[in-house]
C-alpha cells in the first residue's frame, strides 16, 4: 500500500519548525499498521532532522553549532549568488540532512519519547519549502 | 512482505558496538530476497552508522574527530541538563546519523566487503538503546 | 513491485560525479508511478549526496569545506594504511552520507528543480565504485 502527498511549509527564516504532529496525523489517517514514512525536502538550503523535543535550548545550541561550523560569509566560500547565507545553507543542509525514513509501528510514527521531526530552515529569509511525504506498509 | 521487531542494546558508554551479525541474522531469517532493511534508533544522543570494519583504529580516529568537532563541555553549549556530554551527544547524533537503510540482495545485507553496521554511543554513561528494525521486500 | 541492479562508476579521483540522468533513466524504465528509489554505496571512503546542481562553484566550495573539516594528513588521525587521504575519506563519507532515498512521483524522481544526485569521491586516486539501486513502488 502506497500513499504520497506534498506538504508546503512557510518558514520564518532560519530556525526549527516542528512537523511532528502534522506527519503523525498523515500516518494515522493512512491505515498503515507496519511500514515506513519517508520525508524528502525538495531544496538544498534547508534540512529535515530528528532531534530532542523537550528543551528548546537544544535547538538553539544546534543553531550555534551550525553557525560555528559553516558561518554566513565564511571567507572559504565563493558561491554567494543569493547572499552571505547562501553557501552556508547548502553546507548545513548536507551535514545535518534533508531526508528521513521513520518506521510506522502499530499505525503511528515509531519515534522515541524525546524525538521530534523538524524542518530546519538554513536561509535567513522566510521561504516556502516543499516536502514529499511517501508512506508504504501493510494494513 | 513486512517484518518489524525491536533490538535492545546495552552500551558500555561512549564507543562503537558492532550490530552487523545481529542484523544479518534477522535479514537471513526473514525470507526476503530483494528488499530494504531499515534501522531506526529511538534516541537523539547516540547514532547508527556504517563504517570501515577491518582496522579498529578507524573507529578510534572517528571518536577523536567527534571529540574535536563537538567536545564535551564545549562553552558554545548551554544545554547540559544531563552533564557535560549531553549536548555534544545530540550534535554527534545529528552529524553522524541515527537511521540507516541497507539493501537486501539475494537474501542478505548488500554491504560491501569493508562495511560494518555500528551503534555509536555518544553518551559517556552506559545506556539502554532501542532500535526498530523494519524489513520489506519480496521473497 | 521491486527492481534492483548495480551501477559501477569509475571515478577520476576526488570530486563530484553527476548520477542524476543515469538514476532518472532507471526510474523511468521501471514502470513505477509512486515509490522510493534507494541508492547505496558499497564503500566507506566515498559518498552519495544531493546538492545544488546549477553553479559548479557550490561543489568546489563543498570540497573546500570538506578539506577544512577533515584535511588529508590531519595529525588527529592514526589510520593511514592507504595514505594521507585514507582516514579523511572515511570521515567525509560518514559526515556527508553514502546512501539516499528519493521519492518516485508520477513515474520519475521527485527531485526539486535545483537538486542533483552525486557520487562524491573522497579518495585522491581514481577508484571503481559500486552502487546498489533498489526501486520499489506501485505501477
Name some characteristics of this structure.
homotrimer, 139 residues, alpha+beta, five-stranded antiparallel beta sheet, three-stranded antiparallel beta sheet, 3 helices, 8 strands, 26% helix, elongated
Q: Secondary structure elements and their pairing?
A:
The structure is a homotrimer of 139-residue chains.
Chain A (H helix, E strand, L loop, with lengths): L1 E9 L4 E4 L1 H11 L3 E8 L4 E7 L3 H14 L16 H11 L2 E7 L2 E2 L5 E7 L6 E11 L1
Antiparallel strand pairs in A: 1-8, 2-7, 3-5, 3-8, 4-7, 5-6
Structural class of chain A: alpha+beta
Which regions of chain A are unreliable across 5 or more consecutive residues at pLDDT < 50? Answer: none
Helix proportion of residues of chain A, in percent? 25-40%
Oligomerization status of the protein chains: homotrimer
Plain-language structure description:
Chain A is elongated and about 55 Å long. Chain A is 26% helix and 40% strand. The first copy, chain A, is built from 3 helices and 8 strands, in the order ββαββααββββ. By secondary structure, chain A is an alpha+beta fold. The model of chain A has no long low-confidence stretch (mean pLDDT 97). In chain A, the strands form 2 sheets. A 5-stranded antiparallel beta sheet of chain A has the order 1-8-3-5-6, with helices on one face. Chains in contact: A-B, A-C, B-C. At the A-B interface, strand 3, strand 4, helix 2, strand 5 and strand 8 of A face strand 3, helix 3 and strand 8 of B.
Care to give the gist of this entry?
The structure is a homotrimer of 139-residue chains. Chain A has 139 residues and is an alpha+beta fold.
